[in-house]
Amino acid sequence: MILLVISSIICLHAYEIDVNTFSNYLDVQNRHLHLEWLLNMDKKYINASSSYSFQVVGRSINKISLDIYKLNIYSTYLQNGILLPHTIDSPYADSDQGQRLNIQLDRTYYRGEYIELSIKYSIDSRSRSISFMTKEQTSTKTMPYLFSQCEDANCRALAPLQDTPAIKQTYTATIIYKDTEAQDVFMSADESKDQFKILNKPLDEANFNWKYKYFIQNVPIPSYLIAIVAGNIQKVPTSAGIRTFLVSEPDKIAAYTEELKEMEQFLQAIEQYIGPYTWGTYTLVIQPPSFPIGGMENPLLTFANPSIMTGTGSGLAVTIHEMAHSWFGNTITCVNWANMWINEGFTVFLERKASLIHYKIPDDIKLNAIIGNTSMYQDMLGYGLDSNFSSLHPDTTGLNPDDSFSEIPYEKGYQFLTYLESIVGEVDFQNMLRAYLAQYKYQSIDQKEFQNFLLRYLYEQGVDDYSTKRYKILENWNKWVYSPGLPPVFLDFSTNKLTQALDYSNAYITADGKQPPNWQDYKDFLHSQKQVFLEDLFKKAESKLLKLNVVNQIDKDLKLTEENDYELKFRWFRAILTVGDKSRFTQVADFLGSVGRGKMVYPVYRALNQLDHDFAVQTFRSHEAFYHPIARNNIINILGLKDSFIQ
């Protein structure tokens, strides 16, 4: 065990540092975290304490520095009761990365020693990681609701932490709550068998009971994977399989369970490609619509936006993606956010391999790669093709890493791995990925370590033509990782299905406001073809080829303004706003108040802001309380506003 710890310390120092943590994690590292939270969901407040088991890994230390964000810190003390002085400062005050909590220790501690430390603090509505919702904002409207979202560097708003993916720790938690405020509570951890215990309370608190749950996560995880959800929610098994479960508000359980009946098969498809699922059970939480992203891969408790639930199964690629994170991201993790593609590029690669195994539609995989490439290019244009944010290694020194969040690590990372696979060969590449997972299980690494492993593996396996393959791998490696803009090598994902979708959009342009003869083809399109069609309409709108009379004819034929599939609807609204259509402002505003998923609302706000800034601001102010803090801040930036009305 000692040798393993020493080995991990040596490796960590050899990897890239994380510029987005204020903690002194290279000198001291937390091994275990325990949280005790008393939830007051009506008042949007959590009374909290956290306990740590730090190990000194540097030569010596006399203080511990942790990341925090708008936490109320009351006291810091050793677990033997000795109070420790602390100070709070802001190394990058303008970056919105939070503050640094500096705890002065009682003496000098040396390499190998452990420090048992506790902190009393509280969380309130200013938190960037906790979203407090009133009961009126929920579907059942019977209880308030609470959920967390920590990725990238937002877990410092949940507890004082070494908020970096470089540090992995086990954690336990005791959550105390009122039975009138939450039917149940879940975390990204296993539940102990002794649950729902009713606690003694004063006689004047006769209208509710205090309950508690205890959680245990025995696998070391980075802080951004700590997660909680509480409210009027229930957990049920999905209709197929014994490992997969669903959590949602009770009025949605039946419909969601039916749509997710193939969750076990999704898991088996991933296992078929990459190997066994090692986390035990898999639970998917369908969050309220204000959840700011499509999905979040918290181990044992994946979160997803309800926009993935279309009634047709067309949005379930998100489910496969988040499942795939159980291997890439949760088991092997990027060492810092500059290496995010180590999480996301690998996960997209595995997601599409599993989707091919499950659905057996090669054209759909190619089309999704094309759609992803389009989204990636739009993000690159937003940053600038010369910006390092359009590379696979963004420099976020002095900045919030959320500022670099985009499709680039997902899709450019996917294309890089597809390119490497084309050099190595499909079978050898698959075997390499399985060996890679075994080698770095529960570790955090950087791209250089992956490169070293890939070359070492191919050499040790004695693959054919090793020298040539090594040369081709290294030839463009640095360009793939460090060069901004489009990938250095073009990958061809073309398919007849792509041509069919593009011809369909051209038919509408040619018809010039009339119904084209092939207008009914749309209903037989793959879901990905429909997305390609709408993406092409947006491109035509940007180049002034799409006119309002064509927009009206398309909507008359396809009823896209009334579409229930949000993947299609946001693309439609973005396109028509880019044309200059103001006649559907009411529907656009309603849409922006019904979903908080950034992928869908940010592009529509950008298009709306360019068309009518005042209406865009008015729409945002109408729905501001609905949005998660992460989404709210991004929309504020899109609209060029200085701040939010909500404090």
Automatic annotation (TrEMBL):
One Pfam assignment: Peptidase_M1_N
Database matches in InterPro entries: Aminopeptidase_N-like_N (IPR045357), LTA4H_cat (IPR049980), M1_LTA4H (IPR034015), Peptidase_M1_C (IPR015211), Peptidase_M1_dom (IPR014782)
Keywords: Hydrolase, Metal-binding, Metalloprotease, Protease, Zinc
Cofactor requirements of the protein: Zn(2+)
Coiled-coil regions listed: none
Protein's name in the database: Peptidase M1 leukotriene A4 hydrolase/aminopeptidase C-terminal domain-containing protein
Family in the record: Belongs to the peptidase M1 family.
SMART domains linked: Leuk-A4-hydro_C (SM01263)
All residue ranges annotated as the Peptidase M1 leukotriene A4 hydrolase/aminopeptidase C-terminal domain in the record: 496-639
Residue numbers annotated as active site: 322 (proton acceptor), 410 (proton donor)
Binding site for a peptide: 149-151, 292-297, 597-599
One Gene Ontology molecular-function label: metallopeptidase activity
GO cellular component, one term: cytosol
Entry note: cofactor: Binds 1 zinc ion per subunit.
Binding, Zn(2+): 321, 325, 344
Naturally occurring in which organism (per UniProt): Paramecium primaurelia
GO biological process: proteolysis
CDD domains: M1_LTA4H
Plastid found in the keyword field: no
